[in-house]
Design a protein that fits this description.
This is Nicotinate phosphoribosyltransferase. This protein is an alpha/beta fold. The protein is about 40% helix and about 20% strand.
Length: about 475
C-alpha cells in the first residue's frame, strides 16, 4: 500500500482546498501549528518524534496523474463530480513551497507547544494536516511510552518485541523507530532494522522446543545451529527445569568456545522465577548470563518487579509498547494561528471553545525553553512577531490566574528550528542513534519529580504573558461580536 501520497488525507481537506481555490484564497499566506493538549499516560512529559518521516513525506508531496484521475471519479451528493477539472489541474501543477519549523526529535515537549509550524499558501498548509498528525501523533506517543518503560528499567536494555501486535506493517515499522528514539536498545522487527539501522535481536519461540521430543534436545540442537545466539526460552514445560537444561547446554557451548548468552522467562511469577534462575545460573558457572523477561510488560509492571527484587536484567516489551497500551492516541491537533493580508500584515486567529483547554493560541508561535544550573525550568509559547520580553512570565494554558516568572539568570533557547524554506529542505538529518542520545540528554535535564511515572510534578509550560493578554482580549472581542 502506497502511503507517501497527498491522498493520505481526510476528504474534507480536499473539499476545503477546492473551496480555497474557488474563492481565490488558495495562495493567501497562513500559519498553522501542530500540538497536543494533554500529556499521554498521565505523565509529566512527552518525547517529540516522527519528524524524520514527516520530512520524507513532504519531500514527496505532489499529486500524480493516477491520483488526480481517482479524485475525478469521486461524486458529490448530486451524483456529479465533486471536484472541478480546473481544480484538479491546479493540484497537478502544485509544488511544495511552505516553510516548516519544528522541534527536533528526541526533545521533551509539553501541552500546547507547537511541535511543527507550517507557513505558506493556505491551500498547501491545509492539505498536509492529516498526514502530519498521523505521523507525529503516533510516533510521539510510542517514543514517550518507550522512554517511560526504559526509565522503569533503570538503564537495563529494553528490547522492542511488538511487531506481531502492532497496528499493521507501516505502524509496526514506525513503532520500532519511535521506540528506539525513546530509548529501546533493539527490536525484533527485521524490516525496521534494515530500514532504520536499529539493532535486531531474537532467538526462538515455544514452537521450537515443542517440535522436539525433549526440551534438552531442542536446546542442544539450537546451540548447534546458532552457537553465537543462545538465549533459551525456558518456560515451555517447567521453568526451573528449563533453566537447568540451559545450564547443561551452556557447558557444552563453553567447551566449543562459545558462551550461553542467557535465558528468557515469558510466564509465571517473574520475580520469584528470576531469582531462582539467577541462583541456578550462578551456581552452574554462568554469572554473566542474562535473564530476559517478557509477558505483557509495561513500565508499571517493570517498576513493580524492580521493587520486588527481581533478578531480571533485560526486558522484552511488546504489545503495551507498540500500541501505546492504555493510551490509544496522543490527541494532537492542527490549528490556524494567523492569516496574512495583501498589505503584508498578519492577522492572528483564535479558535474559541466552552472548554478553556481547547481555546487555541493566536499568532506565529515559537517556544522558548529556560535552563538554570543544568535543569529545564520552564517553557514559554510566545508570538514571534512581538518577541519574548524579559523577565518572562509564563501563564498556565488553562488557568490565567496561575503564572511563573523565569529567573533572570536562566539561559534560554528557542525550540522550533527551520526544516523547510519555501519548500526546500534546510534542516539537519541526524541519525536515529543521535536522536536517541538527544532523548537521553533531554530527560537528564528534567527534575526527577517531573520524570516520575505516577503523579508527576507539573512542569511550567504555558503562554508568555503578553501573548496571554492578547489571547484574552481576542476572546473577549470574539464573544462580544455578533455572529449574524
Amino acid at each position: 500500500m502506497k502511503t507517501d501520497t497527498p491522498l493520505l488525507t481526510d476528504l474534507y481537506q480536499l473539499t476545503m482546498a477546492a473551496g480555497y481555490w474557488k474563492c481565490g484564497k488558495a495562495e493567501q499566506e497562513a500559519v498553522f501549528h501542530l500540538f497536543f493538549r494533554k500529556l499521554p499516560f498521565a505523565g509529566g512529559y512527552a518525547i517529540a518524534a516522527g519528524l524524520g518521516d514527516v520530512v520524507k513525506w513532504l519531500q514527496g508531496f505532489r499529486f500524480a496523474r493516477a491520483e488526480l484521475e481517482y479524485l475525478a471519479t469521486i461524486p458529490g451528493r448530486d451524483g456529479k463530480p465533486l471536484f472541478e477539472p480546473g481544480f484538479l489541474d491546479y493540484l497537478g501543477a502544485m509544488k511544495w513551497q511552505c516553510d516548516v519549523t519544528a522541534i527536533p526529535e528526541g526533545t521533551v515537549v509539553f501541552p500546547h507547544e507547537p511541535l511543527l509550524r507550517i507557513q505558506g499558501p493556505l491551500i498547501q498548509a491545509q492539505l498536509v494536516e492529516t498526514a502530519l498528525l498521523n505521523i507525529i501523533n503516533f510516533q510521539t506517543l510510542i517514543a514517550t511510552k518507550a522512554a517511560r518503560v526504559c526509565q522503569a528499567a533503570q538503564g537495563e536494555p529494553v528490547l522492542e518485541f511488538g511487531l506481531r501486535r502492532a497496528q499493521g506493517p507501516d505502524g509496526a515499522v514506525m513503532a520500532s523507530r519511535a521506540a528506539f528514539i525513546g530509548g529501546c536498545a533493539s527490536t525484533s522487527n527485521v524490516l525496521a532494522g534494515m530500514t532504520h539501522g536499529i539493532p535486531v535481536r531474537g532467538t526462538h519461540a515455544h514452537s521450537w522446543v515443542m517440535s522436539f521430543d525433549t526440551e534438552l534436545e531442542a536446546f542442544a540442537t539450537y546451540a548447534e545451529a546458532m552457537p553465537n545466539n543462545c538465549v533459551f526460552l525456558v518456560d515451555t514445560y517447567d521453568t526451573v527445569e528449563g533453566v537447568r537444561h540451559a545450564v547443561e547446554i551452556g557447558h557444552r557451548l563453553r567447551a566449543q568456545g562459545h558462551e550461553l548468552a542467557g535465558i528468557r522467562l515469558d510466564s509465571g511469577d517473574l520475580a520469584w522465577l528470576s531469582t531462582e534462575a539467577r541462583r541456578i545460573l550462578d551456581e552452574g558457572g554462568f554469572p554473566q548470563a542474562n535473564i530476559v523477561a517478557s509477558n505483557d510488560l509495561d513500565e508499571h509492571l517493570i517498576e513493580s518487579l524492580k521493587h520486588q527484587g527481581a533478578a531480571i536484567n533485560v526486558w522484552g516489551v511488546g504489545t503495551k509498547l507498540v500500541t501505546g497500551g492504555e493510551q490509544a492516541a496522543l490527541g494532537g491537533v492542527y490549528k490556524l494561528g494567523a492569516i496574512r493580508h495583501e498589505n503584508g500584515e498578519w492577522e492572528p486567529k483564535i479558535k474559541l471553545s466552552e472548554q478553556a483547554v481547547k481555546v487555541s493560541n493566536p499568532g506565529i508561535q515559537q517556544v522558548r525553553r529556560f535552563t538554570l544550573n543544568g535543569e529545564f525550568r520552564g517553557d514559554a509559547i510566545y508570538d514571534q512577531e512581538t518577541g519574548c520580553p524579559a523577565p518572562t512570565e509564563i501563564m498556565h494554558p488553562a488557568d490565567p490566574q496561575r503564572s511563573k516568572i523565569m529567573p533572570e539568570a536562566a539561559t534560554h533557547e528557542d525550540l522550533l528550528q527551520p526544516v523547510f524554506q519555501r519548500g526546500q529542505f534546510v534542516g539537519e538529518q541526524p541519525t536515529l542513534q543521535e536522536i536517541q542520545a538527544r532523548t537521553r540528554h533531554q530527560l537528564q535535564h528534567l527534575h526527577a519529580t517531573v520524570r516520575r511515572l505516577q503523579h508527576p510534578h507539573e512542569y511550567p509550560a504555558g503562554v508568555e504573558g503578553s501573548l496571554a493578554q492578547k489571547k484574552l482580549a481576542m476572546m473577549a472581542k470574539a464573544k462580544s461580536t455578533p455572529r449574524l
